[in-house]
UniProtKB/TrEMBL annotation:
Keywords: ATP-binding, Chaperone, Chloroplast, Coiled coil, Nucleotide-binding, Plastid, Repeat
Subcellular location: Plastid, Chloroplast
Transmembrane segments: none
Domain UVR: 506-541
Organism field: Gossypium anomalum
Gene3D superfamilies attached to this UniProt entry: 1.10.8.60, Clp, N-terminal domain, P-loop containing nucleotide triphosphate hydrolases, UVR domain
Ranges for domain Clp R: 92-234
Family statement: Belongs to the ClpA/ClpB family.
Name of the featured protein: Clp R domain-containing protein
Ranges in coiled-coil conformation: 495-558
Lineage: Eukaryota, Viridiplantae, Streptophyta, Embryophyta, Tracheophyta
GO biological process terms held by the UniProt record: cellular response to heat
Top-level lineage group: Eukaryota
Length: 982
C-alpha cells in the first residue's frame, strides 16, 4: 500500500465528516469542492483529492480487494458535530513510504484491539512494528519491543468491543502528533516527514497513552529524542559524503595495482599543490584510470604516501545518486553545497569522480546551474581536492569546450600499457581470479592472453551466425583481463558438468518421470508404482555419481597438482569465438585442407594456376603465423581480360576458407570514379550527410575483420583512392572520418583489373594447347612482363611497390571453356534436382554450348548466356507446357539440323552420362550400321551413337559415350572403320 501511494502520489487528505458520510439536509453524501472521487468497499473508504500531483488535474483511482489487510484511507473524523477541521494536505504530500507504513500499521493495531479510533498508543505500536526506520531502530536500542508495548497498551486502555467501524478516526492527540511531526521536520531542515519525525512529534506531545507506555517500559523520552536527532544527523552525513563508495573501505576487495608508478606519483604531486590541486586522468577506456585511483587509496591506507595526503580518504562520488530524487528546483544545488561544505570541514576527503565529464549539465534544470559551475570556485581555491577520470573523446567533447573548467583540472595522460606490462598486470591479478573461479592459470595462458588480445581484439565484436556486431574500441589491459576471466568461466563450467554416465541416467530419469505422470493420468497405478521405484533408484545412482565426482575433485585439489587448469588453448578458443579469426593451432584435418587447397579451388576455378597457387601460399603463411603481423595477409592485383575468373577466384576463396561467399567484402570501384565519392570509403566529413553512418569500407572491415576484400575493376577508381590505400597495403590500417583506426591486418586484399587485356589478347594466340609446356611458360612470362609494364604506366610506383604480387590471368582455351561449361551445367542440374527433375545432356549439346559460348576476348561470360539461351529457355517452355513434370528424366540433345531437342525419358530411366573417356577412332557411318544384315548378334548401339558423327580426333578427350561392339570387326563390314575400342 505504501509503495502504491508513494508511486502514484495519491495521498489521502485528512478530512472530517460524519461517521456515515451523510448530511441531514440532503440525505446524500456531502462532498468537498475539491473531492474528486470516493471509493466504497466493504472494508475501506478511500477519498482522494485533486491537486496533489501538481501537473495532473485528476488523480488515479486505485481499487483494492477485500483481502488486502493494509487498506487505509487516512481520514480524521471529528465527533464535534458540524465543526470540522482539515489538516493541511501539504503535510501528507511529504510522507515517506515508511511514515505511510507506520500509519497503516497503527490502523491495523486499532482493529486488532477492537478500538474505533487511532490514538498515540497505536502510532507508537506502528513505529515499533515498522522495524526498518530510524524510529524503530532507536526504540529497539532502548530495549522496547512490539510484544511488551502491546501488553502495556492493553493494561492501560484494555480491548475494545470488537466492532470496528469502516472508517477509523484519529483522536485529537493523534492529530496533534501529526502536526508536531511536520514542525519537527521543518526545524531539522527536512522537506519530508519520516518515521523519525513522527516519533519526535509523539515525544513532544508528551501527554497521551503513548507517553505512559514508554514510562512503564523504562524509557527516557529526552534520551530517545537525543538518540533520534543523533541518528538523523548520521544519516545525513552518510547520504551526503558517501554519495558513492569509500575506496578505503574496500581494501580487501580491490584488485592489486601493478605498475602505473609514474601516473600515481604524478597524481600525488598534483594533490600536494596549494591551488588547483585536482588531477584529471585522461586515457582510452580500459587502460586503468580507475585502477590508479584505487592504487592511491591503497597507498594511503598502507601509509606509503607523503605527509601532504597522509590519513586522507578517497571517496568515489556517484553523480547519478546525487541527482536522483531531486524533484524541485534547488534541491540538487542544496545537496551539492552540503557535500562541498562537509568536504571543506573534514579536510580529509579526496573526491574521486569517475566520468568527470558528467559534471557538465548535471542537475541543470531551467533557470538552474549545473554541478560543474557550482564546483568551479572550490576547485580553483583548492578547498576541494578532486580526482577526475574521463576518456580522450569525452574530455575533448565536454571539458575542453569549457576553458574555465579545464584550467581547474591538471591532465594526467594514462597511456595504454605494452604487452610486457600487461603480462605483469595479469600475473598480479592471477591469484584473485584463481580464487574466484577455483582453478589455476598457466603462465602460457597469461602470456597468450596479452599477445592475442593485442594482435586480434581491436573492437567489441560479437559473432552471430557469421554476422558481427561492434560497439567500441578495446585496449589493454582491459581486453586481456576479460580474456582470462571468460576463459576461467568456460573451463569452470566445463568441469562442473555432469559426467557422461550421469547424463545418460538423467536422460532416462526424465523419460521415466514422463511415463509415470502419464500412467497416473490414465489411472494405471500399478505401473506408476513400478516407475516410481525406478525413478527413486535412478536419483540415488545420479547422487552417488555426483558425490564420487566431488570427492575425486577434492582429492585432486588437496594433492595440489589437480583441478581445472586454464591453458593457452582455452585463451585461443575465446579469441576465436570473439573475433571469428582462427588462432588455434592447426589441427590435422585443417592441415590436410590447407595442403590440398589448390586442388579444391581448381574444382571451381579452371586454369589460372599461378593465381591459385599464390593465394593458397598466402593463406598457409597466415594460418601458421609466419606472415608479417603488421600487414594484411596478402595483397594481389589480378590483371587479365574479362571473364577469365578473377572475381570468381575471390568468391571461391571466401566460400572455401572463410565460410561463405557472404564473408567477402566486395567494392565495385566503378562507383568511386569521382573525387567526392572517395569519402564513401571512410565516411563523410563532419557536417555532411552520412557522417554518423561511417564508411562503406571501414565499417565493413570493423564488423568483419577476417575476410577477403575485393576491389573489383580497380583501374576505374579515382586516383585519390590509390593514395588512401597506401597505408592499408603497408601498415594494415586505415583511419575513418571519425578518427578511429580500422585494422586490416587480418584481411586478404584482392584487386582486379582489365589493364593489359589487349596485350594478353594479342599474345594469347601463341598460348594454346598446341604448344608444349616450356613454350607455354616462356610465352606467358613474356606476356606477363608486357602487362606489368602497362600496369606501371597506369598505377603509381609507390602503389605497385606495396603489392605482394601482380598476377596475370591467361586467356581461356577451348578445353578449359568446356570444363567451365560442365560446372555451369551442373548448377542447372542441381536447380532442377530441387524440383525433382533429372536432367542429362548429350555430348553434342555440350559441343554446341561451347561453340556458341567460346570467345577468347570475352572469356567464360558468353558461355553462361549460351546455356541460358539453349538450355534454360527450352526447359522453361517445356515445363510451362506441362510436358515436363516433377519426377521426369529429361535428355537434351541437338538434332541433325542443329536444333535443340528436349526428350522426356520418364518411360525408362536414361543412362547416366559417364566421365569423359578417350577413344581413338576414324569415323562411324550410321548408314552402314543401318544396312547391317538382320540377325547379327552382339551389336549394342545406344540412342546416343549419333553424337559420334562428324567428330575429329582432337575432340575425343570430351567423349562421354562408349559404344561396345562385341562381335569381330570383320562381321560388321568394311564400311565401318575403327582402330581401337576403349
Amino acid at each position: 500500500m505504501a509503495k502504491i501511494l508513494a508511486q502514484s502520489a495519491i495521498v489521502p487528505t485528512l478530512l472530517t465528516s460524519r461517521s456515515h458520510g451523510a448530511s441531514k439536509e440532503s440525505g446524500k453524501p456531502k462532498r468537498s469542492a475539491k473531492m474528486m472521487c470516493s471509493l466504497q468497499s466493504p472494508g475501506l473508504r478511500i477519498r482522494s483529492f485533486s491537486g496533489l500531483r501538481g501537473s495532473n488535474s485528476l488523480d488515479n483511482i486505485v481499487r483494492f480487494g477485500q483481502n488486502f489487510h493494509s487498506k487505509v484511507g487516512i481520514s480524521i473524523f471529528s465527533r464535534r458535530g458540524r465543526g470540522s477541521r482539515c489538516v493541511p494536505k501539504a503535510m501528507f504530500e511529504r510522507f515517506t513510504e515508511k511514515a505511510i507504513k507506520v500509519i497503516m500499521l497503527a490502523q491495523e493495531e486499532a482493529r486488532r484491539l477492537g478500538h474505533n479510533f487511532v490514538g498515540t498508543e497505536q502510532i507508537l505500536l506502528g513505529l515499533i512494528g515498522e522495524g526498518t526506520g530510524i524510529a524503530a531502530k532507536v526504540l529497539k536500542s532502548m530495549g522496547i519491543n512490539l510484544k511488551d508495548a502491546r501488553v502495556e497498551v492493553e493494561k492501560i486502555i484494555g480491548r475494545g468491543s470488537g466492532f470496528v467501524a469502516v472508517e477509523i478516526p484519529f483522536t485529537p492527540r493523534a492529530k496533534r502528533v501529526l502536526e508536531l511531526s511536520l514542525e519537527e521536520a521543518r526545524q531539522l531542515g527536512h522537506n519530508y516527514i519520516g518515521s523519525e519525525h513522527l516519533l519526535l512529534g509523539l515525544l513532544r506531545e508528551g501527554e497521551g497513552v503513548a507517553a505512559r507506555v514508554l514510562e512503564n517500559l523504562g524509557a527516557d523520552p529526552s534520551n530517545i529524542r537525543t538518540q533520534v536527532i543523533r541518528m538523523v544527523g548520521e544519516g545525513n552525513e552518510v547520504s551526503v559524503v558517501t554519495g558513492g563508495s569509500g575506496l578505503f573501505h574496500f581494501q580487501g576487495k580491490l584488485d592489486p595495482v601493478v605498475g602505473r608508478q609514474d601516473q600515481i606519483e604524478r597524481v600525488v604531486q598534483i594533490l600536494g599543490r596549494r591551488t588547483k590541486n585536482n588531477p584529471c586522468l585522461i586515457g582510452e577506456p580500459g587502460v586503468g584510470k580507475t585502477a590508479i585511483a584505487e592504487g592511491l587509496a591503497q597507498r594511503i591506507a598502507s601509509g606509503d604516501v607523503p605527509d601532504t595526503i597522509e590519513g586522507k580518504k578517497v571517496i568515489t562520488l556517484d553523480m547519478g545518486l546525487l541527482v536522483a530524487g531531486t524533484k524541485y528546483r534547488g534541491e540538487f544545488e542544496e545537496r551539492l553545497k552540503k557535500l562541498m561544505e562537509e568536504i571543506k570541514q573534514s579536510d580529509e576527503i579526496i573526491l574521486f569522480i569517475d566520468e568527470v565529464h558528467t559534471l557538465i549539465g548535471a542537475g541543470a534544470a531551467e533557470g538552474a546551474i549545473d554541478a560543474a559551475n557550482i564546483l568551479k570556485p572550490a576547485l580553483a581555491r583548492g578547498e576541494l581536492q578532486c580526482i577526475g577520470a574521463t576518456t580522450l573523446d569525452e574530455y575533448r567533447k565536454h571539458i575542453e569546450k569549457d576553458p574555465a573548467l579545464e584550467r581547474r583540472f591538471q591532465p594526467v595522460k594514462v597511456p595504454e600499457p605494452s604487452v610486457d606490462e600487461t603480462i605483469q598486470i595479469l600475473k598480479g591479478l592471477r591469484e584473485r581470479y584463481e580464487i574466484h573461479h577455483k582453478l589455476r592459470y598457466t603462465d602460457e595462458a597469461l602470456i597468450s592472453a596479452a599477445q592475442l588480445s593485442y594482435q586480434y581484439i581491436r573492437h567489441v565484436i560479437i559473432l552471430f551466425h557469421k554476422v558481427f556486431a561492434i560497439s567500441y574500441d578495446r585496449f589493454l589491459p582491459d581486453k586481456a583481463i576479460d580474456l582470462i576471466d571468460e576463459a576461467g568461466s568456460r573451463v569452470r563450467l566445463r568441469h562442473a558438468q555432469l559426467p557422461e554416465e550421469a547424463k545418460e541416467l538423467e536422460k532416462e530419469l526424465r523419460q521415466i518421470t514422463k511415463s509415470k505422470n502419464e500412467a497416473v493420468r490414465s489411472q494405471d497405478f500399478e505401473k506408476a508404482g513400478e516407475l516410481r521405484d525406478r525413478e527413486i533408484e535412478l536419483r540415488a545412482q545420479i547422487t552417488a555419481i555426483q558425490e564420487k565426482d566431488k570427492e575425486m575433485n577434492k582429492a585432486e585439489a588437496e594433492a595440489g597438482d589437480g583441478g581445472p587448469v586454464v591453458t593457452e588453448v582455452d585463451i585461443q578458443h575465446i579469441v576465436s569465438s570473439w573475433t571469428g579469426i582462427p588462432v588455434e593451432k592447426v589441427s590435422t584435418d585443417e592441415s590436410d585442407r590447407l595442403l590440398k587447397m589448390e586442388e579444391t579451388l581448381h574444382k571451381r576455378v579452371i586454369g589460372q594456376d599461378e593465381a591459385v597457387i599464390a593465394i593458397s601460399r598466402a593463406i598457409r603463411r597466415a594460418r601458421v603465423g609466419l606472415k608479417n603481423p603488421n600487414r594484411p595477409i596478402a595483397s594481389f592485383i589480378f590483371s587479365g581480360p574479362t571473364g577469365v575468373g578473377k572475381s570468381e577466384l575471390a568468391k571461391a576463396l571466401a566460400a572455401y576458407y572463410f565460410g561463405s561467399e557472404e564473408a567477402m567484402i566486395r567494392l565495385d570501384m566503378s562507383e568511386f570514379m569521382e573525387r567526392h565519392t572517395v569519402s564513401k570509403l571512410i565516411g563523410s566529413p563532419p557536417g555532411y550527410v552520412g557522417y554518423t553512418e561511417g564508411g562503406q569500407l571501414t565499417e565493413a572491415v570493423r564488423r568483419r575483420p577476417y575476410t577477403v576484400v575485393l576491389f573489383d575493376e580497380i583501374e576505374k577508381a579515382h586516383p585519390d583512392v590509390f593514395n588512401m590505400m597506401l597505408q592499408i597495403l603497408e601498415d594494415g590500417r586505415l583511419t575513418d572520418s571519425k578518427g578511429r583506426t580500422v585494422d586490416f591486418k587480418n584481411t586478404l586484399l584482392i584487386m582486379t583489373s582489365n589493364v593489359g587485356s589487349s596485350v594478353i589478347e594479342k599474345g594469347g594466340r601463341r598460348i594454346g594447347f598446341d604448344l608444349d609446356y616450356d613454350e607455354k611458360d616462356s610465352s606467358y612470362n613474356r606476356i606477363k612482363s608486357l602487362v606489368t609494364e602497362e600496369l606501371k604506366q597506369y598505377f603509381r610506383p609507390e602503389f605497385l611497390n606495396r603489392l605482394d604480387e601482380m598476377i596475370v590471368f591467361r586467356q581461356l582455351t577451348k578445353l578449359e571453356v568446356k570444363e567451365i561449361a560442365d560446372i555451369m551445367l551442373k548448377e542447372v542440374f542441381d536447380r532442377l534436382k530441387d524440383k525433382e527433375i533429372e536432367l542429362q545432356v548429350t555430348e553434342r549439346f555440350r559441343e554446341r554450348v561451347v561453340e556458341e559460348g567460346y570467345n577468347p576476348s570475352y572469356g567464360a561470360r558468353p558461355l553462361r548466356r549460351a546455356i541460358m539461351r539453349l538450355l534454360e529457355d527450352s526447359m522453361a517452355e517445356k515445363m510451362l507446357a506441362r510436358e515436363i513434370k516433377e519426377g521426369d528424366s529429361v535428355i537434351v540433345d541437338v538434332d541433325s539440323d542443329g536444333n535443340v531437342t528436349v526428350l522426356n525419358g520418364s518411360s525408362g530411366t536414361p543412362e547416366s552420362l559417364g566421365d569423359p573417356i578417350s577413344v581413338d577412332y576414324l569415323a562411324v557411318d550410321l548408314k552402314v550400321i543401318a544396312s547391317l544384315p538382320v540377325g547379327i548378334e552382339g551389336v549394342f548401339l545406344t540412342p546416343k551413337i549419333s553424337c559420334l558423327i562428324g567428330r575429329g580426333k582432337e575432340d575425343a578427350g570430351s567423349l562421354s559415350t562408349v559404344v561396345f561392339f562385341l562381335v569381330p570387326s570383320t562381321a560388321i563390314g568394311s564400311s565401318l572403320h575403327f582402330c581401337k575400342e576403349s
